Amino acid sequence: MKTLKQKMEESGLFQLSKSDAAAFCMACAERVRPVVKQLASPPTKAIYDKALEAGWSNLAHSGESHRIEKLMTALRTSDVTGEPTRRTFYVKEPLAALHHGLRAILFETPAKEAGAAWALSVGLARYCDYHLRKCDAPSPDYPLDELTCEDLENDGIEESLRILAACAGDPQKVREQLRPASQARCLTLQAALSRIDRAGGFGSK
Length: 205
Prior knowledge:
Blueprint: H1 4-11, H2 18-31, H3 33-39, H4 42-57, H5 65-76, H6 85-106, H7 110-133, H8 149-167, H9 171-184, H10 186-198
Helix pairs in contact: 2-6, 2-7, 2-8, 2-9, 3-6, 3-10, 4-5, 4-6, 5-6, 6-7, 7-8, 8-9
């Protein structure tokens, strides 16, 4: 079985341009946004949404360095300490993925940031699968029991890379095509998270 790093290498992830690497990270953060929506406190949700919007708007680094830096600091210092421990753990993962996306915009480390966002999004999917296996009763709002969250996230990653290749480095085309595609993949994850939360898998609210 191939390691995650081998999959990344074979996919061409480490050859992405700076702006495409940032877009890839944003797509990962967009797909796992339901975790923040479901589990985070209102202030954390607000910070996440602001940073996500700023990231998509600045894929080509349009000169908003100071704003991006402030949002990175806000993500790092986001107040998740008041949330129950298990919920805090899951919220921190998408915050980290988004933080890597903003780093990809500002710094010359696209491969490092894209690889980290990939690993975080797949890791979150695996955690969700672990909790779904512990849910005894099937759920009518989560019909894809034969597919795992990890399967769906891997599909999303492959789709992201296809879109980036087709857009050939045009940030506007990337935004117009990649973000809606990533948002469309949120619904099934949201249903899975609701099912897990109802079963108490994320701890008390």
